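Quick question: what would this complex look like in 3D?
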Amino acid sequence: MKFFLKSITLLFFLTCIITSCSDKKSSATPTMGENAVPATDDYDPNRGEGKFNESNLSLDGFDMAMAEKGESISNTKCASCHKITDERLVGPGWAGVTQRRQAPWVLNFITNPDPMIDKDPELQSQLELCLVRMPNQNLSEDDARSIYEYMRKIDGAK
Amino acid sequence: MRNQVLFLTALIFIISSGCKPRNAATAVSGDMAAKAYVAPGQHDEFYNFVSGGFSGQMSVYGLPSGRLFRVIPIFSVDPEKGYGYSEETKPMLNTSHGFVPWDDLHHVESSQTNGVIDGKWVFGNANNTPRIARVDLKTFRTAEIIELPNSGGNHSSPFGTENTEYIVAGTRFSVPSDYAETDIPISSYKENFKGHISFVSVDKTSGEMDISFQIRTPGVNFDLARSGRAKSHGWFFFSCYNSEQANTLLEVNASQKDKDFIMAVNWKKAEEYLKAGKGQKQKVKYAHNRFNEETHTAESTIKTEVTVLDANELKDICYFIPCPKSPHGCDVDPTGEYIVGSGKLAAVIPVFSFDKMIKAIADKSYEGDYQGIPVIKYESALYGEVKKPGLGPLHTEFDGKGNAYTSFFVSSEVVKWNIKDLKVLDRVPTYYSVGHLCIPGGNTRNPYPKYLIAYNKITKDRYLPTGPELTQSAQIYDISGEKMQMILDFPTIGEPHYAQAAPAELIKNNGQVKIYKIEDNKHPYATKSESEARVVRQGNKVHVYMTSIRSHFAPDNIEGIQMGDEVYFHVTNLEQDWDVPHGFAVKGAANAELLIMPGETTTLKWEPDRTGIFPMYCTDFCSALHQEMQGYLRVSPKGSKVPIRFSLGKNVEN
């Protein structure tokens, strides 16, 4: 028995040697998704995560031409899943979204959906309801801003 | 107690084999797996583009892991991707013989700039119905296919020059010229059969191919080819066998002579003759098929003329260099000075010197001529011979450090030898019967001498057996040290012949397409929003303008189709996110499915064979509601009163 204990000790010792001996390869570093914004612990559920914030977003006045451009883009890229009423299709209807949500949040979400779906508590509960992750439709910042103007139009902006 | 002793002995054994300085044998087994291991989520170091042989396709693997990423359909239909089945891709497989659904792809070649791989395109040859294809490495799709007239068995292809000025195609089976009398006795081979070598130009920017000229030669079998590089840029070298000009039992009758030839072609000279109008325009027929990235549609054009230069009349384009016993591989080292011929029935590997060859031509050091083409004296072009290298030498690749690696089919081995002193340095077995070899950049000015891959013809007992038909295989060797070390053995599709490999960074960062921008979609039947989705009858043709997005089609209820109709489903994938294709299939379709990339429009032709209700659905699992992505089609008898009507989200209106 005593010998057995000794061999256990020895085994432990040897395991250490073997481990240290084979530990040559450095561990792999995880790579980040290409569209990912560097993660911060302080996710802001009001602003969302992305390029838009209060300082780079001007909502002064209402631009009808921009809203019309937004409507045309959304016909191709959004309307398959979103109605402009409050009725849910694949995703929620757009009516009232500019009141429910702050502008930077909407713009960040439609240009940077995947990281926000992973972090935003409300988007996660939305996902439980809709079951389809909102696709990244590769909107340019300008496209997104036009779509937001169209959303304002839907909500009565003039 | 005895057990404990055994236990200790075992432990001591583990330590001694695991940690102590190793002998060669344990070193091989010790870190072999680690060298080929690429951790989950990590990327490989190299892309490997491998010919799919009789599958007609090209496969894309990672090195050193041997993981298969993609099979690119080229010369054979691929129902999985709708290639050759969708209306847009059918023209890609058009030839002067009509639609040809299969071929045999043997060799691949990378596009090069200044003698190094530039990551733009990969070319492949069709051996059976002679063609060359260009694959665009931004999309990993076949962008263009050009047919070659006056050819039979396009084996000596698609090898390219240093700046991809040309991709060549030499006929393996000499045949009567298409523009001459062709209904003639086979036994008149010697009088009537000719070789034609095509020089296909490649546009630097668009990549578009064109048969710039063909060189007519005596009728022999052209086997493989390599362009000169650096100092020998401007020359091309073709191995040829059957200088006996046999037309039956070649196994015996084409193996009579001690030496066949490597044919050296001065293509710069040929260009001069072409410019000077020395070519003859000949009536032929061949197809030229191009895939348009904006309309997502291929177009096939039949061309009817080719310019032919006669090597017999224009004396200083072609020269024969004698090469022992039916040469197969014909490979040029990175400096451009050494041309390695591999006589597959020979006991030596002759290495020719470009400088000596040029001098021999200047001195007219000829032993005579072969059907009017000068034959340079063997010794006048020879640098030296590798003696007793192995049995059945086939192909040679280079490491850029002065070494060559030659495959030996009969003795199933790879032999490393030094080009300067012609001494054998190392040999390793392959399992079994190796054909081609590939070192990344191993046929360029600048090889990446880290791995060598051997592509084998026979696997026998290497894998779990699968009945009479077994997998093909490749084996990777680490060649970074003095000795070659096998690190991985992996199965491949088809029969792998030649391959190319390029650094991952070069191909990854070449501006690869992730989605087709919906704004740029110029397909005549594109549907860019659900509000435009519709069904239009034109006589007995019914066009369905359909969209797909996670997770529904628009429209998804269609009525008013009648027996005798031809229904065209033009499906536009409205997704604009990477890696979100949608599939499309209809019950009873006599062709295949569609697989539609984001922003793309693709068309499936469908002809009903009976009345009734036909479901259609998305075949590519796209979201949690993928199983809901379906629709119905109603087929009524011919002349029925049911009008064309369609809907989404509600019932069709009566």
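Answer marked as accepted. Chain A touches chain B at residues 3-4, 7, 10-11, 14, 17-18, 21-22, 25, 28, 30-31, 75-77, 79-81, 89-90, 131-133, 135-139 (CB under 8 Å).
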